[in-house]
Amino acid sequence: MSGGMALLTIFVLAVFVGFEVVSKVSTTLHTPLMSGANAIHGVILVGAIIVAGHADDTYVLALALVAVVLATVNMVGGFVVTDRMLEMFRRPRARPAPGDAERPA
Amino acid sequence: MTPAWAQVAYLVAAACFIVALKGLSSPRTARVGNLVGAAGAALAVVVVLLAGDIDNVGWILGAIGVGMVAGVPVARRVQMTSMPQLVALFNGVGGGAAAIVAAIELTDPGPQLLSGGGPESGGLPLAAAIVTLVIGAVSFSGSLVTFAKLQELMTTRPVLINGGPVIFAALIAATVAVGVAVGLANGTGAGPIWGVLGLVVLSLALGVLFVLPVGGADVPIVISLLNAFTGIAVAAGGYVLDNTLLLVAGTLVGASGTILTRAMAAAMGRSLANILFGAFRGGSTAGSTAESDRPVRSSGPEDVAIVLGYAQKVIIVPGYGLAVAQAQHVVHELAQLLAKRGVDVSYAIHPVAGRMPGHMNVLLAEANVPYEQLLEMESVNGQFPRTDVALVVGANDVVNPAARTTPGSPIYGMPILDVDHAKSVVFLKRSMRPGFAGIENELLYDARTSLVFGDAKDSLTKIVSALKSV
Fold it and tell me: What integer pLDDT is reported at residue B35 of this predicted model?
């Protein structure tokens, strides 16, 4: 299969997977899901690294490095912020009074 | 050519992203899912550095370091209240990165573009590069405007420009024309740098004009849509660079983002087209936006404590004001105190309360409010007629009966929490300022309504201490 056709096939299949995996999400998780998906498209960092790694010209390299910085902010920041949100959903459901959570057992 | 082991590693990373999205759809698996996604992303970065035939590694690692120093502390410290802005900002920089990658590929085509751009591919990689550039830039400027709106650096009302729709259409036409010109010029080998710059400027303008007319209450949906846009840009970028991981990850985000956007629009009872272009068509100015000086019944914390303490059933309706005041802990304390007195207490969560769908769930989860007390709109609305007191903490638009009664109001048709069916309503508000959508709420002037002015946390703290002595 030619490269272009293979990529197109992958694209179409990924569309269906994308639709399928979030089809039954509850409104409770809309924010973390949005934020998590946001972090995933930070993988453009890989593209930015490829471009920066093949830059011969100083200007091109400088521009590509800007893309690397932006993509890193997107990816790393996105995953950290999503984790912080989700941390709150996992706390025990017993109901300690505010402030009790920090007290050692 | 990417070595086979690297291709396999990319496949593993892509699978991690699918697991991450799947995990994020359920509260029990969400955190693990997110970590799996992060692991996949880290794997992908290591693989490209080792296998991508990469020069300038020192510079690249330095740039990654700069990005982490810029991104991580903000992500760790941001208040839960400011989450929507931050997501918008992160989304924007991702779109910007995609646009830069595409711009470089267009002006200085690397081996990837050439290898994928043989005659049999019919110029598709070239077209994909132009798409990446345009969508990435639209997402970048659109997200920055969204950020400015949420951060209240600019007005949260729809900004309408005379002839807006005409300018918007003309911009789209110009973008398409320049895009085609760049594509053709690139095919003949002419340096298209001015064309690319022109395309960048046009796309940035398009992004700004796209978001400006969207009203404050609809901004969360726009974030979600721009998120999907960046996903599509990244996918197209994967096509350009002949990189399957970018293609899969971008497509996943694009597709899931589209579904999520539609789900949110459905929660607000509006079509996506109406949200995006409703303000363009005008007619969304009905309902007074100025503060009026009609009398309201203002009440003290002690009175409210008595009303709450002797009620049988209380429903708490949290909104953005609760988030601003960081009042989630004290509201939980109040709820526990009432429960101890035998009052039936629950929370009514509107799907778009706050500045982002699910915003209130995140905050109340932070305060350890038990899951079972958080009721969604469909299940709680039938309970309001049996409710003695609806305590509205910093919410406005999501309880505004104008959504049912006033055709022509910007929020008309949005499903709301029917607090006006409760026997009495207590609003905790900072001021008489209209809500984020800028529409006045008739319920504030109702005879059964009383208002406690002030910061939500202060008011709640006073109510709690008054309740202890009732």
Answer: 93
The parent domain of residue A53 ranges over 45-89
Which of B43, B49, B64 is the mutation pick for testing A, counting most A CBs within 10 A? B64
70-99 of A, contacting B, C-beta below 8 A = 70-93, 95-98
Phi-psi sector, A74: left (phi>0), alpha (psi -120 to 50), beta? alpha
Structure confidence by residue, pLDDT tens digits, B216-239: 667 878 888 999 999 999 999 998
Q: Which of B397, B418, B420, B455 is catalytic?
A: B397
Question: In this complex, do A64 and B330 lie within 8 Å of one another by their Cβ atoms?
Answer: no
Three-state secondary structure call for residue B296? coil
- In this structure, the number of other CB atoms found within 10 A of the CB of residue B277 comes to 16
Query: A103 lies in a domain?
Result: no
Residue in B45, B330, B361 closest to A28 by CB: B361
Structure-token pair, residue A54:
């093949």
- d(CA B382, CA B68) in angstroms, rounded, equals 48
Question: Amino acid identity of B336?
Answer: Q
Mind listing the pLDDT tens digit for each residue in B289-332? 444 566 777 888 888 888 888 888 999 999 888 887 788 889 89
Q: Tell me the two tokens of residue A83.
A: 């984790």
Q: Please give the ipTM for the structure prediction.
A: 0.84
Domain-embedded: residue A35 = no
> Into how many domains does chain A fold?
1
B397 is catalytic: yes
For residue B403 the two structure tokens come to 């959504």
Question: Which residue in B24, B116, B237 is closest to A47 by CB distance?
Answer: B237
Does A62 touch chain B if contact means CB atoms closer than 8 Å? Answer: no
Is A50 part of any domain?
A: yes
How far, in Å, CA of A24 to CA of B29, rounded?
14
Q: pLDDT of chain A along its 105 residues, tens only?
A: 556 788 888 899 999 998 888 877 776 778 888 899 999 999 999 999 999 988 888 888 999 999 999 999 999 999 999 998 887 765 544 444 444 444 443
Euclidean distance between the first and the last CA atom of chain B, given in angstroms as a whole number: 76
Cα distance between residue B134 and residue A56, in whole Å: 25
A103 touches chain B (CB under 8 A): no
Name the CA radius of gyration of chain A, rounded: 20
Residues in chain A, total: 105
Q: Which of A43, A56, A74, A75 to mutate to test the interface with B (most CBs of B within 10 A)?
A: A43
Considering the domain boundaries, does residue A84 fall inside one? yes
Q: Are strands B424-429 and B449-453 parallel, antiparallel or unpaired?
A: parallel
CA distance B136 to chain A (A): 11
